[in-house]
Design a protein that fits this description.
Blueprint lengths: L1 E5 L6 H14 L4 E5 L5 H11 L8 H25 L3 E5 L2 H11 L4 H12 L6 E6 L5 H5 L15 H17 L4 E5 L4 H19 L1
Parallel strand pairs: 1-3, 1-4, 2-3, 4-5
Helix pairs in contact: 1-8, 2-3, 3-4, 3-5, 4-7
């Protein structure tokens, strides 16, 4: 099973992806936890290019191209091999992030992202996409708890900018309702984790 976590910065994706991996391992599942951009050595270098100080100089189209270059390596080196082994792959972000950030907030052309999806994904799409939905007004307060080295230039965007990201995510959820599961991220970490685990266990049972 391929599970992805999506949401605006500060919504708790990384925490919830880690908790889900830990919970599934206690149930004797083999789980690979990864992230985008990243997941491979080259992917992490692309992450540094995008989120480092120089990342502010990439325009949305350039950001998308870098993301998909890293995504292609991620799929080839990590995601597809682990899925072929029958393992559960959990990724903190995947292609829906490109749609939310580069299209929703960056206004790049839909046909460019559709073409990149077609060539890079090659039919490998998530079985479940867990969208942690959060009001952007709550983002700044959450992001202040990050350590300096964990932040990036996206953290300093306005709530209005993040609203564009959120609306794009919700649009993706409407278009792909068969795989999207929306969770209220304003709830406590424990409640969100329990809700997600219940959803995932039900999906596993369906596939069995």
């Amino acid at each position: 099973m391929f599970i992805t976590f999506e949401g605006i910065d500060g919504s708790g994706k990384s925490t919830q992806a880690r908790l889900l991996a830990e919970n599934l391992r206690t149930l004797d599942h083999t789980v690979v936890l990864t992230r985008e951009p990243g997941g491979t050595e080259l992917g992490e270098r692309v992450r540094d290019l995008l989120f480092g100080l120089d990342g502010r100089h990439w325009d949305p189209t350039e950001q998308a191209l870098l993301h998909y270059a890293a995504r292609s390596i991620h799929l080839r080196k990590v995601i597809r091999p682990e899925l072929r082994k029958g393992n559960i792959v959990i990724s903190d972000r995947f292609h829906d992030s490109s749609w939310a950030y580069q299209w929703g907030a960056g206004n790049i052309r839909k046909d460019l992202l559709s073409t990149l999806d077609s060539h890079v994904l090659g039919g490998t799409v998530p079985d479940m996409t867990i969208l942690l939905d959060l009001d952007p007004e709550e983002c700044p307060g959450r992001l202040t708890y990050r350590l300096p080295e964990d932040g990036n230039h996206f953290d300093h965007r306005s709530p209005l900018w993040f609203q564009g990201v959120r609306e794009a995510y919700l649009e993706r959820a409407r278009l792909h309702s068969e795989r999207f599961y929306i969770v209220d991220a304003s709830q406590s970490i424990e409640v969100v984790a329990d809700t997600i685990l219940h959803m995932v266990r039900e999906k596993i049972d369906e596939q069995c």
